[in-house]
Amino acid sequence: MFKKSYFLISLWVILGSISGLIFSSFYGKTNFYIPFYHDISNVLERTSPSVVNIWTIKKWRAWQEQSNEFGFKYNRRVVKTGFFPNGSGVVIEKNLIVTNFHVVKEAFNQNQQLLVENHLGKTVMAQILGFDSEADIAVIAIIESINLKPFRIRKNIDQVKVGESVVAIGNPQGLGQSFSKGIVSAINRTFKDKKGNFLQTDASINPGNSGGALIDDKGRLLGVVNVIRSTSGGNQGLNFAIPVDTVMEVFNSILEK
Of the listed 50, 88, 102, 180, which one is catalytic? Predict the structure, then answer.
């Protein structure tokens, strides 16, 4: 009888421990791997609603050929309106998005309208809530709710190791949401002209990725893509992201102002 009870208690303890690891892994708090759920295609599918494309509505004057009622053609100056890709953004809270300040700087300085596009292609107007130009971080809010999902944050960012698998998500060249896989190439990189430390990655990054996400293999946000250092401006150079702990610190300070 005693042996049977001991066996049942041990079995329940083991099952409880395994269940705890699985649930903790769902929330990104352990490194326990769950087949299928943590397959890269499923991770990307779950994180797609957490990254947005940011566009600017610009107006400019241009010559346009017109005809009068007698069929004579002439050129006339007209005002044209168009959409221009600025970069990317990550969803931190419901309807609140973090991006790089340089992504929205021109829109802020010239009072241009911003549009946010989700992974399904739906767009909505947005406004800048605040920014920290030294940290190159801005917070924007969408005017109407669309299908967005806040990121799960990597809590132990100080434990990120060189060689970890990462994925960059963004809007390179304004072509729409795109993914590129790589590793953490280095940590704690610093620059004379930039504030704070940076994560370095070899994941392919191009203009338009700025403000997008750098995630780990479980879909947790590691950082916000910030800068490319190369002679051409493309992914042939070195790619860097602002660590998520710095992002959250600036995000909270902007909201408190």
Answer: 102
